[in-house]
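Sample 1 of the test manifest.
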Amino acid sequence: MNAAFRIPGAGRLSQAKTASFSFDDKSYTGIEGDTLASALLANGVHLVGRSFKYHRPRGFLSAGAEEPNALVQIVRDDARKTPNVRATVQELYDGLTANSQNRWPSLAFDVGAVNDIASPLFSAGFYYKTFMWPKSAWKNLYEPKIRAAAGLGVSPDKPDPDHYAARYAHCEVLVLGGGAAGIAAALAAAETGARVILADEQAEFGGSLRFESGAKIDGENGYSWAQAAVAKLKAMDNVRVLSRTTAFGYYAQNFVGLVERVSDHLKSPGRELARERLWQVRARRVVIATGAIERHMVFANNDRPGVMLASAARTYLNHFGVAVGRNVGVYTANDSAYAAAIDLKKAGVNVAAIVDLRDNPSGPVIDEARALGIEINFGRAVVSAGGKLRVSSMTVQPKNGGGERTIPVDAILMSAGWTPSVHLFSQSRGKVAFNDETKRFVPGTYAQDCVSVGACNGTDGLSATVDEAYAAGAKAAKDAGAKTGKGIKPKVDASESWSRGMLGAAPGAGPGTTVKAFVDFQNDVTAKDIRQAVHEGMRSIEHVKRFTTNGMATDQGKTSNMHGLAIAAEELGKPIPQVGLTTFRAPYTPVTFGSIVGHARGALFDPTRRTATHGWAASHGAVFEDVGQWKRAWYFPKAGEDMHAAVDRECVTVRKTAGLFDASTLGKIEVVGPDAAKFMELLYTNPWEKLEPGRCRYGIMLREDGFIYDDGVVGRLAPDRFHVTTTTGGAPRVMHHMEDYLQTEFPHLNVWLTSITEQWAVIAVQGPKSRDIIAPLVEGIDMSDEALPHMSVREGRICGVPTRLFRMSFTGERGFEVNVPADYGEAVWEALWAEGQKHGAAAYGTETMHVLRAEKGYIIVGQDTDGTVTPNDAGLDWAVGKKKTDFVGIRGLARPDLVAKGRKQLVGLKTKDPKVVLEEGAQIVADPKQAIPMKMIGHVTSSYWSENCGRSIALALVAGGRDRMGETLYVPMPNGTIEVEVTGMVFVDEKGERLNG
Amino acid sequence: MAKAAAKTNAASPSVERRPALAGRAVSAAGVKVEILPPAERISLRAPQASLAALSKALGVTLPAKPKTSATKGGRTALWLGPDEWLIIDEAGKDPLADCAKVSALHSAVGISHRNVAISVTGPAAAVTVNAGCPQDLSLDAFPVGAASRTILGKSEIVLMRTAADAFRVECWRSLSDYVFTLLSEAASDAAN
Amino acid sequence: MLLIRCPYCEEERPELEFRNAGEAHIARSANIAAESDDDFEKFFFIRANPKGVIYERWRHIHGCARFFNAVRDTVTDKFVMTYKAGEPKPEKLPGASK
């Protein structure tokens, strides 16, 4: 069954393929190929939304992406509820469910419409003027209310179940816009063999050829020509044709963002299909062929449902086969609306009258309209539209005043002329120029390797457009290095005229009037609002825009900017170019967060790095913590243990017998070359030249300013080979820092750096039994204290696998770090674990590692230091080579502030109550009774419960700390002040005997 | 030059090798993504003067031109920087041992276990890689044999084109899960 | 995303492969330990931050890993030219704004 307003024989859709859908819970039938807008119009539905501020009833203004009114919510399921979808671009699919927005309780009766009656209260700048005092009301009253009233539609409250794809692409010629101009340019470029991408936001190519019934190219109807040309392009290997694809952003060096809507038009898209695909295209040349957008007439109540752009009515008729009314009026200031009247008349729709602001225009379309018997009124204006939920009449008056006449109509088709779509050109940082004769901004100075063609370039007429575009396409390909093509330029046989028109308020809505003549439909800005902004002192269009919000809605003023500018210019008494045009910014139309995020969500949001032993740890109950991108085993609770119980047990076991710890994430850099020691001398504070091969040293790296940058144990494997370790978090930046100095300050040194962090899995075996655990598995290394003393390194084998075996300790116990090639890491761990089990060893995680090192006063860079701590501050002066004449940071260390007295120094803290564990980051004061704000003399950097000590322990940075040994200091906390005693940093085995214990 | 941890022939491993993601593969229309078996690898650094000697010892001429590689006898040398090559040996021979014999100035560091290799093959291979790699992967800009360190999503990779429709992606071991997952997801979109 | 010409790779590569490394042509003194406080301040803390042409260090960190020098116009955000580390500051700039 045909919908009431579908005209048999009109349009290009196959009427056989129906699709049912619902709007506000009412069911309708449309046709495949419809947009939601055309399907609703076919059913006679014009009222589809309520405006943002005044809640005025609204219908369809356009048939495209510029739509400011018909914003609806598309609901697929609980998680897929997309608000603010333009019904004019949403393609219909069977089962589509749409709801209107910004109304309660219903679209026809909306309580919020009281804002319309109370509109004098809501004039321009309303928010700025009204919600000013009392100040406290902002937080409690105004902001919550404004937030509740702001925005349209409802956000889904579940995670987006769709997935989004992304792709980088490169081409010689990118053509933006698939109308006659874009297609002609793409043909010319493609024929040269250059890589071409042609993108258009619509489902079908053709642009205005969709409605321009008078166009003829190469002997064919314009739309048919477009389809054939696109089919030809699609068949070429060097061309990629993208429909439903919006170029939303034009960035530096011809980098253009495109969003392709892959499955929003499908009834039930397969899971394998992305919802949208982001294309990041780098093009040598860009051809902008984005056409022009028709402007509305600015007159009273021009927002009533049924009042729409003339080209939209033509599109609905000529493409979708839908009549937007049965008795339409036309209000125009140029020729192009006549074509709409003629097309509708020929389709059997009554055209009540054409009202033309011009005094005495002439031309073939006017003659044709007259010949069809359509009433034409020159020199007259529509001063008001009647009706509320739907337009019911238009009131016509001579433009200079006089008697009114009301003509009943059910739709008004309007055209104030065409605005070239310079959005992308402007985004490319091109400067527009105002053409005084045609009253439009067109591309002026180019900033990038691009060219505008056709209507967006201010080129009138199809013939001139195709000529210009074809030549530009060929030139773009040639400039991008392609050969000359052998194609034949399309020949335009017939076209229509789009030139001229008017800007600003029409008669009846001009200066002195207060009618609601809308300039910006989406943000409810009227001609009066713009004039008011000027009266209140706004001089620049940028200020007028912000004061009135004209052009600031999601449609970015596609239909409103030029009218707003003209009204402001008139009120200011200045020519338009002096008032300026606001800057166009990306995105051209709204872009979903999903398409920007692309693949980078869930597991792909950020890499999760796991060590070789991760599987073993997971299967042995490890709880993991995030350390940068790494997952590190935090602690290994046994059944019934909480974190504290597990950590206490692990800490005690390591000191009593032994523990195994995965230290693989530590950064590792192999420093190789004859000048390796010289380089180490320059990058670390310590002396290295005399370190024997086979021995290790704890090294400190500074920045040039003298502050600690990183630390780690370094093993000398050979005279020209060092195995350097860094902190886990510092690995990449230390490598970068070392490369920086090597390449740019010390390029004369023959030495090279290679990251080996991931080459070696590192298993720390620490505790009195550590040697007993390792020794049975090792070949070729003498494990005696004489042959392998503390701080030494040997190469040999473990479990038959090559190893770099370090004897070193971050626990204060006898300890080893077993480096094995990463793929063997887990199996060697298992072998060591099996040995360890014989001795009662435990696996321990990062928390126990932290506690054990704190018990020994070993610092962690980045926890106990913060980028303002020198080696002396940290009690590590011994690691600075006193005889050295140069190393990075040597001069910084001598800066006056760094040698001054009273610097914060790292010390130990013991709470007077041993059971109290301080909070890391807590501030320290000398006198708790002083007035607030107290003088803070330091802060706690590390704090733990130490089961081995039977009490809490802490490290802290305290001003003049080392001179305060034994002093009582105070840590004020919300629940009371904690007394602490300043102590040394070593809480266990001060003499260091356990290293060989 | 000092010898790196040279392989002694003393013992064979008594424990198994567990390469990351071993055997994983994903097929989609037009493209297959799979983890490649382990290979011997070194990072080779050397000045111009040493290249002839090293090329001779390695049995493959170290390429001097940016973004290129050379392959001979199962061994590939990829130009990564003006003094840096990635040597990949898939024939089971140890390039570290070969370099150890060279007295000319150089640095050779074993990184066999640092990297994981993933192959991306099929007509949609380039599109798959381009889901996360911003380089122009047309055959003109990135011909067969081209090799480069670059970016894939949020990971650094080394990319080499092994055939018109085949790439080898090398990444660090702990990033292989991310890189493989991204390539797999990209593969499912690549033919569309 | 900018394209940056790497003087070692001899081609333009995407910005994602690069990292900025601060102002160029600030040499570390061979005898830095003897530098006066004022000289050290100039060397370590003081940077030009001009409006217009700036000489910078960049690193092709996810490419050939080399540091190199670049001339960039901070007004247009365009790279004027790039050259290898260690090469002198170019005397003539192609097509730079004044």
